[in-house]
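Holo prediction. Input below; ligand is 2-acetamido-2-deoxy-beta-D-glucopyranose.
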Amino acid sequence: MTMFIAVISLFCVTALQVVLGIETYCLNNNYVTNGTHMQFTKEPSVEEFAILGTFKGLHCCAKNYRSIEWYKNGKPYPWPLTSSQLILYPEDANQTVYTKSVSEKDAGNYTCILRNDTVVHSHTIILKVLAKVPDEPQVTYVSRDAEVAIGANLRLFCEAFGGRIDLPDAHNEAIWFKMDSNRTLSNGTRIRQEKTSREDDQTFGTYLIINDIQPEDFGIYVCTIKKPGITKNLTVSLRQKVMVEYINPNPFPIEKMLLLMIAATLLLLAFFVLNLRFGLELRLKYKNTFGPLEEEDGKINDALILYSGKDEDMALNILLPKLEVDYNYKAGCKRLPSSVDAWITELHASSKKSRRIIFILSPSALNGNWDTATIYKAIKVLDSLGPSLICLVLEKLPTMKHELKNSQGETLKSTLYSVDVIDWNNPPSEKCWKNLCLRMPARRHFGLSEQNAQRPNKRTVNRQESLDNLV
Ligand SMILES: *[C@@H]1O[C@H](CO)[C@@H](O)[C@H](O)[C@H]1NC(C)=O
Ligand SMILES: *[C@@H]1O[C@H](CO)[C@@H](O)[C@H](O)[C@H]1NC(C)=O
Ligand SMILES: *[C@@H]1O[C@H](CO)[C@@H](O)[C@H](O)[C@H]1NC(C)=O
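Structure of the complex:
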């Protein structure tokens, strides 16, 4: 009987020791932090292993929380025995769930949810139940690769489950190395290793603590997990954190954008100005260089100039000589009959011999009828003759704001779009001439033009000669 009591009490003490182990687990090896925000106090394991029938505890060590809730596979504690035998350990402020004898159905995902008034943290531990001690050590935690600044403190941790070893002089162990120097990181004031184990040394790990990080500390660290007969290496890389990158990881290139916009605006402006200044000239040059030549089409004249008696001087003494002498065109001239109705028949024959009709559009050409209807009619008649019509407008056209459509659904305004209209100054500007030439047939050579450009005032026009061209 005494024997029995002794055995019982021995069993109780052992069990208590194990339970005491779980009681103190969350008190030791905690992060060195002060502050009142809710956080885990040590590295929470990711996977946990247990041998069938042995003691097992799972931990979520934390501080400054209001409550910890446990879930298994999404189901809140307490769990039916058919799902899990693990129970809360309230003395440890619910940071731990445990069972004295683990069974297969205890395996699964255990999630702890920490809450305070504002924040929720959750962590899941996968519990695997093994029938026997595994040959290879099973990793329960290894620190991730880290980026740290010089001067900061850091702690790396690796831990594995190896099971109980029943050999004398043999034990499980985890040791940190630095890869480029194959010696063990010896314990100094700045760098030290701290071993830890739980559940009768079945789960074992080592902290590598580096204070006041120096440039030579960056590199690859290796945690070598040793179980008799087997060694496993885990690596963690430690890189320097670049502070500048951190402050502004992805700056918006506002200065570049601004410069680009200014450049684009200047370019546009330059293009606009150049176009204003040289656009007409370039177009003219392009047309004369590449435009189709209208030759050998059976026509005699490049243009037929139509004018009223009042505009005769302009037609014969300004327009005609310039076209013929400076621009190398051959032009015919004809005075318009006073009645628009007579134009078709009178002009029919001569228009057939010309490539263009240049109509000097002024009130006198229309017998003084400077209204939209008369202008429309005149333009329609001349346009129907065949050659492209160029209207040189000597006076401001009457307002076309309230113009009514005629029976063809047309207005003067719409008709003016279909013919070439040039506002003609007196005396004509260089722009007027270029506009006119742009609408004339293409000319590859201006042999006379260059000579005459040298002596623009010496141009004499023999009126008789011009009249020879009259058709
Ligand atoms: C611990 O868990 C019990 C049962 O779920 C609950 O009543 C108690 O409030 C919890 N205590 C803490 C500190 O979370
Ligand atoms: C437990 O979690 C792992 C990883 O998240 C998942 O693959 C597995 O299906 C989960 N098991 C259960 C029973 O929810
Ligand atoms: C340590 O590294 C040096 C060269 O880096 C090598 O010669 C030596 O054999 C290594 N020692 C051990 C014990 O691996």
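The radius of gyration is 51 Å. That is the main takeaway for now.
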